[in-house]
Amino acid sequence: MTAPSKLGDFIEPQMWDAVDALLRSLRAAGLVRSNATDDELIAAFRRARQEHEAMSEGERCFNSPDPHERVRVFLGPYLSRKGRRWAVPLKSLDPWWKFWG
Q1: Where are the domains of the chain?
Q2: Which residues of 63-100 are buried (b: 16+ CB within 10 A; e: fewer)?
Q3: What is the residue-averaged pLDDT of the chain?
Q4: Rounded to two decimals, what is the model's pTM?
């Protein structure tokens, strides 16, 4: 299972809505590069969804990230500096003993 990220949390509520609304919100938040085209971003969403849907239920539950976290991987080449920071898995999921070192 992949740890959640701030970017995944941002994408999740909009994941299955209209793609153009998600594109607008990613751009408005400065999470994607300004030179990334809509077609490139839409293709990244599409590839992430297709990969997720091609898996069996067992694979989805235990071996893969949620679709909104999978999208962050496919968006990687198009993320701005801020988007890359938001794509980093949240540290709070590290094992508790790492904090007691």
Answers
A1: 6-90
A2: eebbbbbbbbbbbeebbbeebeebbebeeeeeeeeeee
A3: 81
A4: 0.77
Q: How far is CA 32 from CA 11, 15, 35, 76, 78, in A?
A: 12, 16, 8, 9, 6
Contact 90, 5 (CB under 8 A): yes
Alpha helices of 12-90 — where are they, by DSSP H?
19-28, 38-54, 57-62, 67-74, 81-87
* pLDDT tens profile 20-73: 888 999 999 999 999 999 999 999 988 888 887 787 777 766 655 677 777 888
CA 65/CA 21 separation, integer angstroms: 23
Share of the chain above pLDDT 90, in %: 34
Q: Which residue has the tokens 């594109």?
A: 23
